[in-house]
Amino acid sequence: MRTKVISHIYPTTKLLFVFVMILISIFYDWKFAYFFVLPLCILFAFMDGHFMTYIKRVVAILILFVLLIFFIKILMDNSNSKFLLDLGFLQIREQGIIDGLNQTKILVVLVATMVLFFLTTEMEDLMIALQKLNMSHVVSYVILSTLQLIPEMIKKSNVIMQAQAARGIETKGSIINRMKAFFPSIGPLIISSITDIEDRAITLEVRGFSAETKKSNLKQVSKRKLDTLLTIGILLFAALMIIGRFMA
Predict the structure, then answer these.
(1) Where do the H-state alpha helices sit in the chain?
(2) What is the pLDDT of residue 1?
(3) 31: nearest Cα among 94, 92, 109
(4) Which helix (H) or strand (E) element contains residue 92?
(5) What is the pLDDT of residue 90?
(6) What's the rounded Cα separation, in Å, for the pair 10 and 196?
(7) CB distance 113 to 14 below 8 Å
């Protein structure tokens, strides 16, 4: 069984890595995003045993947006650069490709790092880590609940669709059949989400969430010496990369 190396790193250390990679990508061209950050994140996902899941999510998110931006940049390119492909109705120039790569660099870094972060970080650990930084427990809970909103909605939608299939409603096949099954499920999905909000609010009040006292956590998340060294290394790397860019 592969050791989850990245998952054991402290949440705020990984969050710092995300912010630093996004910051550095602003100062560098597309090569930093495509040839350094993306391969590095793929390597980290492989080390943590999430390689295929990571690749599927990154490709699914990037393929639509990156291709769309590339298509727009190619259509709007009026430069006199070298032709790479001339189809008559569509002319692809070298400058258009470079502009497209530079336009998508931050998106690539953002998706590559954030997908890795959420794959290797439990939201409960992140909430505890944020509270240790003296962040309000209300703010940290809002962040946690926001991050969990979409996954929870997807789970509920799958349960509702399975219930529809159990009642004999066709939920697979053509797009029309899927749409016929999906739209009636929106009502139960919204109602169940509202009900969950009320139940969650009652649960939080019972546990003294609004009480102005120091909160304790059943689960303990502590920062190790390795996390401190990684934090220093990430900050040093960021400083050197930015200084090197301006010096160049």
Answers:
(1) 11-27, 30-32, 38-47, 51-76, 94-120, 123-132, 137-166, 175-206, 225-247
(2) 45
(3) 109
(4) strand 91-93
(5) 61
(6) 30
(7) no
Q: Contact 126/104 with Cβ under 8 angstroms?
A: no
Structure token pair of residue 87: 């189809």
Which residues on adjacent β-strands are paired with residue 85?
A: 92
pLDDT at res. 42: 94
Four-residue CA torsion sign, 93, 26, 109, 39: positive
- Burial (CB < 10 A; 0-12, 13-18, 19+), residue 184, is exposed
β-partners of residue 92 are 85
In this structure, what token pair is assigned to residue 153? 């909605």
The reported pLDDT for the residue numbered 66 is 78
Tokens, residue 227: 């996390």
Tokens of 200: 């969650």
Handedness of CA 11, 13, 19, 24 (dihedral sign): negative
Q: Which helix (DSSP H) or strand (DSSP E) does residue 86 occupy?
A: strand 83-86
Pick the closest to residue 42 from 62, 27, 24 (CA basis).
62
pLDDT at site 21: 95
**What are the beta bridge partners of residue 83?**
93
Alpha-carbon span 208 to 234, nearest angstrom: 38
Q: Quick one: angle between helices 94-120 and 11-27, nearest 10?
A: 170
151-169 as b/e: b if 16+ CB within 10 A? eeeeebbeebbeebeeeee
Report mean pLDDT in 10-residue bins for the chain, 248 residues.
77 93 92 93 92 90 79 69 61 73 88 91 82 72 68 72 72 67 70 72 66 66 88 95 86
Residue 126 has a pLDDT of 83
d(CA 180, CA 183): 6
Residue type, 197: I
